[in-house]
Write a structure and sequence with these properties.
single chain, alpha+beta, globular
Length: 498
C-alpha cells in the first residue's frame, strides 16, 4: 500500500503542469543566455590572431589552391599536410580569395554551418513552435559544442551539418527513396569533410535494416559502388589524399577506462539534453511510437563508437561527443518538444538546474590581448626563411612565406610504411623518402644557419629543453606570451643566428 501510495504521489507530482508565467520566464532566461553566448562567440571569432594552436592546419590547403598548387601531393608533403579533408577548403575558397590575410572568414563559415545544423535539427519538417524546453536544449548544445577549438578554423561545423542532415532527412521523410538518395550524397560529402562524418549514412542504414532489409541491401550496394568510384577519382586528383586523411600517424593515448571517463564527463555537461532525451523517450514508449526507438538506437550505436575506438583519443569529448552525440540528442528533442507530458513542473525544474550546472562547468572562451601576436608579426615580416612553431603558421601564410609546420606536419616523424597502404596505394617508399628529406633538411638548415628566424614555443607552465641544434647555432633575442583562448597559453621565444 505504501509503495502504491508513493507511486501515486509521484505520478501526481509529475503531472503538475507548469504555469504559463513560469514558462515565459524560463524562455526569457534561455533566450538571454543564448544571446550572450552568441555575442561572446562572435567576439572570439573576429579576433585577427590565432585562437587555437593548429589553425594553420586546415587553411593551408586553401592557401595552396589560391596559389594554383594542388594539395595532398608529394610536392606539398609534409609542410602542408592536411589530415581533415578537402570539402571545407573548396567551400572557403571564394571567401579566402577576397580576404586572403584573415582567419575570420574561415571561422564565420564554420559557425554558419553550425547554426544551419541547429536549424535543420530543430525545424526541418517540424512546425516552428517556441518552447522553453527547446531553448534549454538549444542553449546546452550550443554551449557544449563551442568548448575548445570547435569555434576556430576547422571543417567541423560543415561536417556536423552534413552528418545530422544525412540522418534527419530520411528519418523525417519515412525513409523515402528520394530521402535515402539525398542522405547518401550528404554522407559522401561528409566523408570528404572529415572521414568520420560518414557515420551518418551507416546509422541510417542500421535503422533501415530493421525496417526493410531488401531496401537496405539495394541502397548500400548503390551507395558503396558510387562511393568507391568517387574515391578512385579523388585519389587520382589528390595522390596523397587517403594517406593524409585516413592513415594518420598519431595514435590514441587512452584505454577503455579513459574513454568511459570522457563519456561521463560529456554526459554531465550535456545533462539538460540527456534529461530531455530520456524523458521524451519514455513518454514515446508508453505511446508505442516508433520514433523513440529509432533515436534510442542512434544514440546507442554512437555511444558504442564513442567508447571505442573514438573515445580513446585524447580530448574526444571536445570533438566526437560534441559533434556526433549532441546533435542527435538535440534532433530528438525537436521531435517531442510539444508533448504535454513534457510540460511537467518537475521536468522544467530539473532541466533548469541542469542548465545552471552546465553553464558553471563549461567555461566560455574570451578574446584576449594581441600584444604578443603583434610582436610575432613584426619578426615574420623581417624574415624570409622561418622555422615556425605550429601556432604562428597562419601569420606566416598571410605574408605569403613558406612554413615548416602548418600545424600537423610534425606527425610525419611518426610515419612508417604499412603493408595495407603499400598494397592499396604503393607510395609508402616515396613518403618515407620525403619524411627523411624533411627531417634532414630541418637539421641541416639549423646547422648551416639557413633560418633567419626560429620560433620555439612552450606552454606557460612547461619547462622544455630547447634542442641542441638550435642552442649551438642560434641565440634567443626576444620572447613573448601569446594567449590562444581555445586551448593554450604559449611562451614564444624568438631565436636568431649567432
Amino acid at each position: 500500500m505504501k509503495i502504491n501510495s508513493i507511486k501515486e504521489k509521484g505520478a501526481v507530482f509529475m503531472n503538475v503542469q507548469t504555469p504559463k508565467q513560469v514558462l515565459y520566464i524560463l524562455t526569457g532566461v534561455y533566450v538571454l543566455w543564448l544571446i550572450y553566448m552568441i555575442v561572446n562567440n562572435i567576439w572570439l571569432i573576429t579576433s585577427p590572431y590565432p585562437i587555437e594552436y593548429r589553425e594553420g592546419h586546415s587553411m593551408s590547403s586553401t592557401y595552396l589552391l589560391l596559389k594554383g598548387i594542388m594539395p595532398f601531393t608529394v610536392e606539398t608533403y609534409p609542410e602542408y599536410y592536411n589530415s581533415y579533408g578537402i570539402l571545407f577548403n573548396l567551400l572557403a575558397l571564394p571567401f579566402a580569395a577576397i580576404w586572403q590575410d584573415s582567419l575570420i572568414p574561415y571561422r564565420l563559415l564554420n559557425e554558419l554551418c553550425v547554426l544551419l545544423a541547429i536549424g535543420i535539427a530543430l525545424f526541418y519538417k517540424r512546425k516552428p513552435t517556441y518552447s522553453s524546453m527547446l531553448f534549454a536544449a538549444l542553449c546546452n548544445f550550443y554551449l557544449f559544442y563551442h568548448i575548445n577549438s570547435n569555434v576556430s578554423v576547422r571543417p567541423d561545423g560543415l561536417g556536423v551539418l552534413l552528418f545530422i542532415s544525412s540522418i534527419i532527412i530520411p528519418l523525417r521523410n519515412e525513409f523515402s527513396n528520394r530521402s535515402l538518395t539525398i542522405s547518401g550524397v550528404l554522407g559522401v560529402l561528409a566523408f570528404f569533410t572529415k572521414p568520420y562524418y560518414l557515420l551518418g549514412w551507416y546509422l541510417i542504414s542500421a535503422i533501415l535494416l530493421f525496417r526493410d532489409w531488401k531496401r537496405f541491401l539495394y541502397a548500400n550496394i548503390a551507395f558503396h559502388l558510387s562511393f568507391l568510384a568517387i574515391c578512385m577519382l579523388v585519389n587520382w586528383i589528390f595522390p596523397l589524399y587517403f594517406y593524409e586523411t585516413i592513415f594518420a600517424y598519431s595514435n590514441s593515448v587512452g584505454d577503455m577506462h579513459y574513454s568511459l571517463r570522457q563519456m561521463i564527463y560529456s554526459l554531465k555537461r550535456l545533462s539538460p539534453l540527456a534529461v530531455l532525451f530520456f524523458v521524451g523517450f519514455f513518454s514515446h514508449i508508453t505511446d508505442k511510437n516508433h520514433i523513440g526507438w529509432q533515436y534510442l538506437m542512434l544514440l546507442l550505436l554512437v555511444s558504442v563508437l564513442l567508447l571505442y575506438p573514438l573515445g580513446t583519443n585524447d580530448g574526444a569529448y571536445l570533438t566526437y561527443h560534441a559533434q556526433l552525440l549532441a546533435p542527435i540528442m538535440l534532433a530528438f528533442c525537436a521531435e517531442i518538444y510539444d508533448e504535454p507530458k513534457l510540460n511537467s513542473l518537475f521536468v522544467h525544474i530539473l532541466v533548469l538546474l541542469c542548465c545552471v550546472y552546465s553553464f558553471v562547468k563549461v567555461p566560455l572562451m574570451h578574446r584576449t590581448s594581441n600584444n604578443g601576436w603583434e610582436k610575432i608579426e613584426k619578426y615574420i615580416s623581417e624574415s624570409s626563411n622561418i622555422n615556425n612553431n605550429p601556432c604562428v603558421a597562419p601569420l606566416i601564410i598571410f605574408q605569403d612565406k613558406s612554413v615548416t609546420d602548418d600545424g600537423v606536419s610534425g606527425f610525419v616523424y611518426e610515419y612508417m610504411p604499412k603493408p595495407l597502404t603499400t598494397a592499396l596505394f604503393g607510395k609508402d617508399s616515396i613518403l618515407l623518402q620525403r619524411k627523411n628529406q624533411y627531417v634532414e633538411s630541418i637539421n641541416r638548415n639549423f646547422v648551416d644557419k639557413k633560418y633567419d628566424c626560429v620560433f620555439v614555443g612552450r606552454r606557460l607552465e612547461e619547462d622544455v629543453t630547447v634542442p641542441k641544434s638550435i642552442t649551438d647555432n642560434y641565440h634567443c633575442v626576444d620572447s613573448c606570451v601569446v594567449n590562444m583562448p581555445c586551448n593554450l597559453i604559449i611562451r614564444m621565444s624568438i631565436y636568431k643566428p649567432l
